[in-house]
Amino acid sequence: MTRIKLHVLVAQSDDQARADPLWQWFEKDDAQSAILLSCSESLVETAKGAAWHYQRQLSLNEYVCFCCKAQGPVLALLRDVFLQALHRKIKPFAAVVVHTTEPLDAISLARALVLDPFLADRYEYSETGQTPSACVGVMGAALAKARALERQGPGTPSDL
Fold this sequence. Notes:
Blueprint: E1 4-10, H1 14-19, H2 21-27, E2 34-38, H3 41-46, E3 50-53, H4 66-69, H5 73-86, E4 95-100, H6 103-115, H7 117-122, E5 123-125, H8 133-152
Parallel strand pairs: 1-4, 1-5, 2-3, 2-4
Helix pairs in contact: 6-8
């Protein structure tokens, strides 16, 4: 089964989001099989394609553990839109663009796609050049650490 590509767009403002190449790809006609999940109501209202708004919760850098963060509204929306497409309530989609204002949300989302079996079977996190360069190092390190912990298995002490 082909998994749905998930891209994260980190932008502090609507103008910054609209200037990003990922947003411009989403707005093109050839990206009509993509949907948008955004923490900005105005971006959702003006988006050319299918779009949903979510209320952003506290991020990891605001003292919320990953386990709590993984239960957030973005993950619920990802489940919901997949099931809506499955039941033909919305048009099927091949890609999702998640807009957030926090770089650490991208890390938390990438990790959630590894931990949640339902999402892991259906979505594939895209690590291709759409993330701001300031986030790439942090995300790469976090994903490498997560993969190392998975290889160790449960109950094994970690020195990471």
